[in-house]
Amino acid sequence: MAGKRILLMYITEVSGHHSATLAIEKALRILSPDAEILNINAFNYTNPISEKIVNRLYMGVIKKAPKVWGYLYDNYAIVKRIEKIKRSIHKFNSPKLKKLFDKFKPNVVICSQAFPCGMVADYKRAYNSEIPLIAVLTDYVPHAYWIYDTVNYYVTPAEEISQRLAKKGVSADKIQSLGIPFDPKFIQKIDKAEAQQKLGLNAGVSTILIMGGGQGLGPIKTIITSLEKIKKELQLLIVCGTNRKLCSSLKRKLKKFKKKTLLFGYTDNINELMDASDIIITKPGGITTAEALAKKIPMVIVKPLPGQEANNTAYLTQNNAAIKVDNPKAINLVIEKLLNNPLRIDDIAQSENKIAKPNASFDIAKLILDQP
Question: In the chain, what are the domain boundaries?
């Protein structure tokens, strides 16, 4: 008997949404090798030109006017105001989706972002389709853009988020608190000394991992300058992601840094970098957060942006799983205090362990495979 035909949909190539579908795909291929899986960028598939424009607009708003994004994000008044526009876009995209669905004939569809979820939800209504649709939330906020009555299941990061989703009108029997999916390789823990040796780091020296998400955003230069003030011996692992400008700038300054520093662009060994590190300074993206929780590495979050970052940070700090720092220039004081207090580091790690969902990808894969 042939395996299930599974359609995974995300938007934006370098994003947590894509990382999530890749993680689910990896788990599915382990659990069901005969499954036929299609993992596509839904925005690019339906609106290839618009995708580039929207991505540029989004990045521009995030960098130059983050408060605007904060206002738009999970704003019920805005959601209602753009409802007609959204329906028109979905109606325009429905024939393209029908062509895809007629050709691939998926048994189940999984969306890791609200835009494709809405498209498929409205497609189901327009064509009276019974295809199971699973929405996988990759942030600790169930915003209103996700809500559609034709979604069969919502997968949330935690029980608290499920409760908030239920308050928005979603039936409790449609909600599963399975966690945020991430690559199963993060479940495997490498001994710190071994990981440090593999990277060419000095054994036994406090190691700080600095990340700005896949696109290398945030005040990374300011953070490095601040950490340089710490007298204690340190070594830094800096991940620039796809931010080539940042990477080139830091490369030119490497020899001037007082601390041993390793520089990375977009890399696929974040799991090893986490294993080699004592603390991670990072943007609070959902996937990175889920990975760090699984690794039980204390998180320091610097100046989170309004919207999903602020919500993710609130969830983590309320659960004692991260420390928020509003002033990147003062991060040296926070890091120094942490390194001088091993009990505090252990306390955070224990808190992380309580809310971590290391098997999220496999649990989500099982839910998908259980669909009729």
Answer: 5-180+358-369, 184-355
Instruction: Specify the fold of 184-355.
Output: Rossmann fold (3.40.50)
Residue 143 CB-half CA count within 13 A: 26
| Pair of tokens at residue 137 | 């939330």
List, run by run, the mean pLDDT of 10-residue segments along the chain (372 residues): 88 92 98 97 80 58 57 60 66 84 97 93 94 97 90 97 95 98 94 95 96 89 96 96 93 90 95 97 96 98 90 97 96 96 97 98 98 93
In sequence order, what E strands does 72-226 have?
108-111, 133-136, 153-155, 175-176, 206-211
Q: Which amino acid is at 164?
A: R
What residue spans of 35-82 are helical by DSSP H? 42-46, 48-64, 66-72, 76-81
Indicate the DSSP class of residue 265: S
CA 172 to chain centroid = 24
Tokens 């601040």 sit on residue = 226
State the pTM of this model.
0.91
Structure tokens at 22: 């890749």
Asked if 239 and 210 touch (Cβ cutoff 8 Å), the reply is: yes
- Look up the CATH superfamily of 5-180+358-369: Glycogen Phosphorylase B; (3.40.50.2000)
